[in-house]
Each structure stands twice: as C-alpha cells, then as structure tokens.
Amino acid sequence: MQINQTLSPADLSPKLSRLWELSAAKILDIEKHLDPAAGAPVYTVQGKYTARGWTEWTQGFQFGSALLQFDATDDEEFLEIGRQNTVERMAPHVSHVGVHDHGFNNISTYGNLRRLMNEGRIAENQWERRFYELALKLSGAVQARRWTETADGDGFIYSFNGPHSLFVDTIRSLRVLGLAHRLGHVLREENDREISLLDRLKTHALSTAKWSIYYGKDRDIYDVRGRVAHEIIFNVNDGGYRCPNSQQGYSPFSTWTRGLAWAMCGLAEQLEFLESIGYDETTPRLLEAARATCDFYIEQATAADGIPYWDTGAPNLDKLGDWRSRPADPLNPHEPVDSSAAAIAAQGLLRLGRHAKDDRYWQAGLTVLDALLDEPYLSAEANHQGLILHSVYHRPNGWDHVPEECGVPCGESSMWGDYHAREVALYVQRIIEDKPYLTFWGEPT
Q1: Residue 309's closest CA among 319, 317, 299, 298?
Q2: 203 in any annotated domain
Q3: 444 pLDDT band (50/70/90 cuts)?
Q4: The domain containing residue 271 runs over which residues?
Q5: What are the pLDDT digits (tens) for 260-278?
Q6: pTM for this one?
Q7: Domains held by the chain: number
C-alpha cells in the first residue's frame, strides 16, 4: 500500500462527522425493521440485513453499534437502544458454550456499557454495574473453558469446529478473558481447581503467534513472514500439530485477509492490555507477531489504498494485473475486496503504531481509514442498511450476494465490518478530541 505520511487524525474530522450522521439513520432503520425472531443480522442482501445460520457471533455488534453511536454523538436514543437490547437479548450469548466468539458479542455490549459507566458517560448505578460485570465474568469463564492442551505443553481456546481447531479470529475475542481477569474472576473446574483467565489468555495468544502466523523461517515452502493461516489443526489424541487449514480463505497456504486483520487487531490490543498490567515474557513474542502481520498487510496484502481483496491467493487475482499498485476495485468482475478486513486492520495498525511508537503503522492505519470513510465504501444510500460497502463473509461457500451485473460479491455490508468501522472511527475521534484512550477494559492506560 501507499502510505500517506502527511495525514493527521484531525484531517479525518469531516469524514468522521459524516460517518456518524449516516450511521445514525442506519441503526434506526435496522432497529425499526429487523424481525428479532429471524435471528442475529449477519450481512446485507440487496441492502437489507439478514441472518445467516452458522454461529451466533454478530448480535453483539448490532447492539454494540448503537452504544458506539451514543459514545460518539451523546444521542441518548442510541444508549437506550443498546442498553435495552443488551438486557433483554444478550443473556444467551453469555452462557453460549458452543462458540469462541464471547469477546465479540459481550465486550461490544456489556463491556461497552461498563466502560461508559467507568467514564462517567452514564450514571453510576451499583446494581447495574454489577449486572454488567457478572455477565463479563461468566462470559470470560465460558470462553476459557473451551480448552485444548497441545503437545508442547501449551494450549488454545478451540473454535466452534471442535477441539482440534485453532482459529486465528479468537485472538480478538480474548478481550473478554482479559476483562474478566481484571474483575478478579477465575474459572473453576472439577474439585474446585482454579484456572487463571490471564494464564489462558496469554497461552492462547502465544499459541496463535506460534502456529497461526509465519515468520519466513522455512516452516513450509509457503512460509512468508507475516502470512496468516485461518485455522490450525491439531491431533486431539496427543495434542500434536498437524497442518494449517482455512474455512473462509482460498487455501491453507494463502492468507485470508480478514483472518490477517483479526490477528493484527487482536495482537495489538493484547499488547496494550498486557502493558496495562505489567510487561512479562509474553510481550516480546506477541510484538514480533504483531509487527510481522502488520508488515505483511502493508507490503503484500492490500491494494495501494490499503483495502485488501478477500484472499492474497484468490485464484483470479492475476486477471487484475498489478493490483497492488493502484486502489482496490470493488466492482471488478474477478475477485471481491473485503472492506471489513480493512476496518479491522486499520485499528490494529493504529494501536500497534501507538504501542510501538512507530509512525509507519500509525500512518498506515490513518491511510486505510481515510479510504474507508469515503466512496465507494461509505454507504450514503438511505435505503441501504449497511454502513461500509463491499464486505465479504464466506466466499468459498458462496454465501455472499452477487449482483447480476458484477459477477462477484460487491455492494453489501456486514455487521462486523460496520461495527469495526464505527469502533476505529470512535478510536480516532477520541484522539482528536483528547478524550480518554479507547480500551476494552475501560480504565486509564
């Protein structure tokens, strides 16, 4: 990508204002017209949000978006939308034992509400606070319980696919373990054996860094520094590593760019969290992984404007010629872009830039965000419920809507893409306005 070295956060202020203006109408439209009985909204089809049964991992982004809207604008209508729906509809996600997505659903809702109370943005209420904190403690313990021990003495939180499966996505969902630990919670197993949520967080993060990320050290013939495997398969009989795999990418030996983005953002955020509680032996290894993934994103994974196509090995990329040298083309007939990966990656770049005091990452994050906050990505159409266009969910399964005139998925949004665009927008807006630094644990860094 071509990094804009002169861009400052303040330069994005007009675009941020426009985003929140458009965002408000879209949240209200979804709240008014979406049937709760239809399931959690996942992505848009012809501009309308629809459910897609696979795992229930997007409900928190729906209600969390309203809370971010309140945070950015002080419009209490959105606080009530987020708070009421959290109380009434998020409890099943706290006790959901079948997914690895607790940090997505529950930090976005209960976590944001607790953070807003910590910051004095909503009135202090002891029982309300305890309600949020109990939900977060339980969510962290349930997430941590999904544990597979590996032959090297470590382990990982296994994905919804089962005990053999380490997903790179989960590095971003670790936030719920971190917050539950800060709240003094532990997981209790048989015979009252106490398991540290912080230890599980660090061990999973290190396993992700070790197995999901490549470092150019000849692990296999496709070992390129910063490349990410979506899924790692282990033998559940002995905990031994078997092979890389991919559920949503093109192949185990290419990089699904949203998986890359999850790694970038999750690693950078966990580095900030560990810094807040004191450095230890974990930090250098996670920093190495964060730098590798962010470097790969900048140097190999994206077009010139910082927007990636859905997979670095997508089979028809060659038909686009030298695609890295020019802005991404979401309307091309060969391969879709994934704006949701860009929204997630932008935050990872910014957080790593700040943590590592490295302007290259910081400026790269601003460059990506600058592209997302404008056409053709920012959705200005009143009849489209999505906020950020040209997102892709599951290309191999063919789940994404393909307009007849395009030939590949385009023009649609996803609940995670919209949420993360709002989250990174809020992150930058707070920096512009010199407000408290945005963290998932909601306490001073």
Answers
A1: 317
A2: yes
A3: low
A4: 9-49+147-432
A5: 999 999 999 999 999 999 8
A6: 0.98
A7: 1
